[in-house]
C-alpha cells in the first residue's frame, strides 16, 4: 500500500472545505489536460495528481462565486 501524496490534511489547509478542494482540483486538471502549463515540478503524469500538488504548494488561487468556483 502506498501513501497518497499530497495528503488530505495538507490540502484542506489551503482551501475552505473538501468540496472546494474537489471542484478546484477537477477544474485545474481539465485546464492541464487542455494544455495549460504545469505550475510545479513533478514526476507525475496524471492531471489530477498534478492539480493536487499545485494546490498543496499554494500555487493556485480560487474564488467562490454564486455560480461556483472560478
Features:
Eukaryotic RPB6 RNA polymerase subunit; two-stranded antiparallel sheet; mainly alpha; 70 residues; 2 strands; 3 helices
CATH superfamily: RNA polymerase subunit, RPB6/omega
Structural class assignment:
mainly alpha
What's the number of extended β-strand segments? Answer: 2
Radius of gyration: 12 Å
Sheet having the most strands: 2 strands, antiparallel
| Main sheet: strand order | 1-2
Mean pLDDT: 87
Beta percentage is 5-15%
Annotated CATH architecture: Alpha-Beta Complex
Structure, explained:
By secondary structure, the chain is mostly helical. It has helices at 8-12, 18-33, 47-56; strands at residues 64-65, 68-69.
How would you sum up this structure in a few lines?
This protein has one domain: Eukaryotic RPB6 RNA polymerase subunit (Alpha-Beta Complex), CATH 3.90.940. The chain has three helices and two strands; from the N terminus they run αααββ. It has helices at 8-12, 18-33, 47-56, and strands at 64-65, 68-69.
List the helices and strands and how they pair.
Layout: H1 8-12, H2 18-33, H3 47-56, E1 64-65, E2 68-69
Antiparallel strand pairs: 1-2
Helix pairs in contact: 2-3
Amino acid at each position: 500500500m502506498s501513501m497518497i501524496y499530497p495528503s488530505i490534511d495538507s490540502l484542506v489547509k489551503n482551501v475552505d472545505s473538501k468540496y472546494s478542494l474537489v471542484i478546484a482540483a477537477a477544474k485545474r486538471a481539465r485546464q492541464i489536460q487542455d494544455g495549460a502549463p504545469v505550475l510545479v515540478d513533478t514526476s507525475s503524469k496524471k492531471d489530477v495528481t498534478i492539480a493536487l500538488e499545485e494546490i498543496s504548494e499554494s500555487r493556485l488561487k480560487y474564488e467562490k462565486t454564486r455560480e461556483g468556483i472560478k
